[in-house]
Amino acid sequence: MRRWVFIVLLVLVMATPLHADFRDLFQRQFIDKPWGGAPIVREGVCVDCHTSKIMNPDYLKIPQEWKMSIHYKNKVSCHDCHGGDPNDAAVSCGTPHSGFIGTPKYREVPELCGRCHVGILKNYLTSGHGKALKTTGKGPNCVTCHGAHNTQKASIDIINDVRCTKCHSYERARIMKQALFSTEKKISELDSIMTSMRKSGALVEDLEKRLFRTTAEFRTIFHTVDVNLVKAKTDEYLNKLGLIEKDLLSLVNEYKFRRNFSAFLLVLFTALGIITYIRQKF
Questions:
Q1: For the segment 42-78, what is each residue's pLDDT rounded down to a tens digit?
Q2: Which residues constitute the domain of residue 178?
Q3: Crossing angle for the helix pair 170-199 and 227-281, to the nearest 10 degrees
């Protein structure tokens, strides 16, 4: 009898890796997080109109560009920037009482974006970029660097010779990129780990919020386009990111332990069930 029990347990232990996919699914769906669906972004009549046959062909691509943007990912919809009522085609745009502001003039773009990005607007207006726009009307605004409807997630890659040489030599931009490099590299590393953890089912929302706040603060400073200020603040933000990294690694170790422990319980209860069945038979 004991020999049979030993053989069964040995087979279960050796077979455990074969059930890794099942354990991972079980872990993600029932242990680490509650049931829930992906957030839904309400598109409204704006997208209905911009994808219709009556729309100017130049505007047909806007909905698809928006769906590829960081705004869409964060549930920022058309009316959040352009006004109007996304639920009523009769007043969605073009009427005095709809609140629709349409396409802002080039000089007005920073103030429009600054309704949400308050700190960035403040620093931008004091920068060489902002002063050039206000003085000549031709300086770079938000969409010059970040795009309009296809607004991408901010990253150090935005600073490149193709984009920056539209206005000045790349040498000036290269110095800024070097000043940003160490902090942005750490931000990217932490974001990558959190993304992987979230896909595995781990609860990293609080850490993601801390990283988002720290990143936003640092990138707000960047919009001064002041290399010396960025350099002066680098150590401060690397320290903040270091604390986040410490807590993240602690969570990673805890998550690994929980996964291993849940796998152990799965094997244990399966083995106990088989043992009980064998004892009942013999």
A1: 567 888 888 888 888 888 999 999 999 999 998 999 8
A2: 1-31+156-282
A3: 20
Phi and psi dihedrals of 60, rounded to 5?
-70, -25
Identify the CA nearest to 271 among candidates 279, 23, 258, 257.
Answer: 279
Cα(216)–Cα(45) distance, integer angstroms = 32
**According to DSSP H, which parts of the chain are helical?**
2-15, 20-26, 44-50, 62-67, 70-73, 78-82, 109-113, 118-126, 128-136, 142-146, 161-164, 170-199, 205-222, 227-281
Question: Are 203 and 32 in contact, with CB atoms under 8 Å apart?
Answer: yes
| Tens digit of each residue's pLDDT (9 = 90 or more) over 72-111 | 998 999 888 988 887 776 666 666 567 788 889 999 999 9
Say if residues 29 and 201 touch (Cβ distance below 8 Å): yes
Answer whether residue 53 is part of any domain.
no
Dist. CA 177–CA 181, nearest whole Å:
6
- The CA distance from 53 to 191, in Å, is 41
- Give me the number of domains the chain comprises: 1
- DSSP labels for 106-134? GGGHHHHHTTT-HHHHHHHHHSHHHHHHH
Distance from first CA to last CA of the chain, Å, rounded?
8
125 lies in some domain: no
Global pTM reads 0.68
